[in-house]
Give the backbone structure.
Amino acid sequence: MENTAPVRKKRVLSLIQPTSVPTIGNYFGALKNWKNMSEEYDCIYGVADLHALTVHPEPALLRKQSQEMFALMLAIGLDPEKSIVFFQSHVHTHSELAWILNCYTQYGEASRMTQFKDKSQKHADNVNVGLFDYPVLMAADILIYQADFVPVGADQKQHLELARDIADRFNTRHGSTFTLPEPFIGKVGAKIASLQDPTQKMSKSDTNPRASVSLLDPPDAIVKKFKSAVTDSEACVRYAEGKDGINNLMSIYSCCTGKGFDEIEKEFDGKGYGDFKLAVAQAVVDEFKPVQEEYAKLINDKAYLNECAKKGAEAALKLTYRTLSKVQKKVGLYQL
Ligand code: TYM
């Protein structure tokens, strides 16, 4: 007999912390891929507001930034009718699974996470258990949806590997339970560097305002920041080792225009860095213009945002109950 069961589309999941307006790093490393993948896959995207608590944000600011992040996610083109778009804290099942997964995570492997090591060094006065447990909650975010692909920047690769290890350990002990997620890391844009120190990752929390460009920066600010980007003294637009500043600008330009590095080198052959920086800035301005326009409309429509968030949370809860109850049963929790 012919098998008429509907084939499940591959599932994509990713979250972003609402700690400030996303940078072009977040955008090209993750958000743009979120949007592109939402055409082909079943997608689930969230505001990681629980993860943000690890840095003790001011409560009113966290609430505001979470709403802004949600509006931005819709503004980049995520369609709440097609994808599940939600706040992590509205879906309590993530935290419940995280507790169980804690018991399947070794202290040693969590201690090896480079982000934990970096952050504990930078903020030695606040090395809380949440910071340590951060990757386990992230594993729960992913595994509870049985996600196939997780679009992230290169900095999240190690966390993804940990999520796979936890899933594999659980599956080995209790039989097939979790899908092993694959990271989806774009070829270009997975690690956008700081404009002021191109050997470092561009980060939302950089204290130098010229180091990062945010998705909501006005065009003149974007141009100014690119004009002051650190490059080198060769004055030749080519992608090569040791030219971190130019390599970074070429990656950003490539993400905006879809052009390859060879094509970009030809386009700017004989031209100086001044022209190139302006072209990159203009490409970014053009890329962000429709997002900024849409955001301006959405951010004042709180009723609509709340309606979308409620719908997202309901759909997410429904999906996650399936995995959570399976896991609770497998580990031996008493069922009613
Ligand atoms: P977060 O909020 O730090 O960053 C969101 C996304 O942006 C990517 N990213 C970058 N990509 C390229 N260049 C950069 N300079 C750059 N900076 C950041 C990040 O890799 C990420 O994809 N732990 C996550 C949030 C999270 C999550 C999850 C992600 C929570 N649960 C489940 C995936 C699946 C984080 O802090 O991302």
User: Anything to note?
Assistant: The first strand starts at residue 11 and ends at 16.
